[in-house]
Every structure is written in C-alpha cells, then in structure tokens.
Amino acid sequence: MMNQTFSPEQARGVASSIKNKGHNARDIINQLDREIKSVEGWWQGESAKAFVDEFHQLKPSLDKLVQCVDNISISLNKVADIKEQSDRDIASQLRK
After folding, report:
1. Alpha helix (H) residue ranges in the chain
2. CA angle (30 as vertex; 28, 31 as ends), nearest 5
3. End-to-end Cα separation, the chain, in angstroms
4. What is the C-alpha to C-alpha distance for residues 39 and 16, in angstroms, rounded to an integer?
5. pTM
6. Looking at residue 1, what is its pLDDT?
7. Alpha-carbon 40 to chain mean position
8. Helix (H, G, I), strand (E, B), or coil: what is residue 6?
9. What is the largest CA-CA distance in the chain?
10. How many CB atoms lie within 10 A of CB 37?
11. DSSP symbol at 45
C-alpha cells in the first residue's frame, strides 16, 4: 500500500497556480469581449449580428468557468487550513 502525505504548503502552491490561471482566463475573456465588440465596427449585417450574439450567449458559461476555477483554488486553500488545524489539534491532544 502506498503511503501518501498531504502537504498544506504544496496545496497552497497549487491553489495559487490555479487562481493565477483563473485570472489569466478572465483576462483572455475580456480581450475576446473587446475584440468581438470591435467586429461591429467593420462587419455589419445579419451574419455579424449572429457572430456577436453567439459570443454573448457563450460568455456566461465562460464567466462561470472562471468562477469555478476560483472556487477550486479557495477550496484547496481551505483544505490546507483544515489539515494544518487538524494536525495541531491532534498534537495538542497527545501532549495532554
């Protein structure tokens, strides 16, 4: 059987990396939004409207993805906190 150790420090590092990727995704979505809006300046008609509308329909899902990534980061940080507190509690009980 494999013995695995949970490292709160490592978990926080991964959480930070995940959070940064969420911020990067948010930046990309904002860039896409600006670029899609700029299309309206040089492309008119029903096809342009359909193109812009498609992005606007997808954007809430993209926003939700970013929120989910942020929530994963927050959860991983909470797990690290709980693990550290649990270790402190066990040590405290053993020292009594």
Report:
1. 8-39, 46-94
2. 65
3. 32
4. 35
5. 0.82
6. 65
7. 30
8. coil
9. 77
10. 12
11. S
Instruction: Please say whether the dihedral angle defined by the alpha carbons of residues 81, 84, 1 and 18, taken in this order, is positive or negative.
Output: positive
Angle, nearest 10°, between helix axes 46-94 and 8-39? 170
How far, in Å, CA of 96 to CA of 92, rounded?
7
Residues 44-58 pLDDT 10s? 999 999 999 999 999
Q: What is the DSSP letter of 42?
A: T
In angstroms, rounded to a whole number, what is the distance separating the alpha carbons of residues 38 and 81? Answer: 45
Tell me which residue of 6, 22, 1 sits closest to 73, measured CA to CA.
22
Q: What is the pLDDT of residues 84-94, one digit of tens each?
A: 999 999 999 99
Token pair belonging to 83: 């693990």
**How would residue 96 be classed by pLDDT, with cut points 50, 70 and 90?**
confident
- pLDDT, the chain, mean: 95
